[in-house]
Amino acid sequence: GQMRPLIRWIAGFLITSGAVVGLYALWGGVGCWGAAIQWVWQASARTVSGNALNLNWVITYFLHLLRPDVYGPLMDGMSKYIEGDLPWLRTINVFIVISAILFFLTIFFLRGKSLFDFNLAASAGFLAYFLFGYNVHENHGFLLLVVFTFMVLLRPKEVYFWFLLMVISLFNLANLLLFYGLTGEREVSRVVMGLDMSVPLAMLYILFFIFFARDVIRTIGRETSEQPA
Question: Does the pLDDT at position 169 exceed 60?
Fold first, then answer.
């Protein structure tokens, strides 16, 4: 009984997505999907990391710091994009992200009972993508706000989930302010006492993920006092 709303939601999503894919294929031909997949794969290799507070941004900083002859030096003490593909790092990123997504989905299918459990697993999986993916940009963080807001809507009386939404919102806000300032018209200095502050903040975000992932594993399938909305 509790799984029926989730099954209906997944079925509706698949039917809607299938209809969109079918219409697009009729309009552009089946070959357009091969071209689209190729474009996405090539685009994902353009930079190690965009202006996003994640693992690859930390790695970008240390590559500039330790191998300036190969990746270029820090600019005014700040890390910049590394253009191009680093196959070794991209392989590690893909492995981590796919493993994390499959892990949280497995936890859900083994113990999940509701749409709320599914949203927890999806939130953890997408946060893993944002923090450990290749060529992730700051605007990808907007979808994190969507899934965490949905979590609050499903459990509006539980303070912990409001706290999670606040933390994700603050990280997204800090991400934008650090790289674009208040107006977004020019880059602002992120250096404090010789350190690019985006680096320790990205490390803090990764630490938050570790604790959040632990809580997701403990929470999925647990009975709560309030039924899903």
Answer: yes
CA distances from 66 to 63, 162, 204 (A): 5, 40, 22
For residue 11, give Cα distances in angstroms to 5, 14, 15, 18, 33.
10, 5, 6, 10, 23
Query: Is 175:52 a contact under the CB 8 Å cutoff?
Result: yes
Angle at CA of residue 201, ends 196 and 206, nearest 5°: 135
128, HSE (Cβ side, Cα atoms, 13 Å): 26
Q: Considering the entire predicted model, what is its pTM?
A: 0.79
Q: Using one digit for the tens of pLDDT, what is the confidence trace for 85-94?
A: 788 898 899 8
Mean pLDDT estimate for the chain = 83
One-character DSSP codes across 159-210: HHHHHHHHHHHHHHHHHHHHHHTTTSSSPPP-EETTEETHHHHHHHHHHHHH
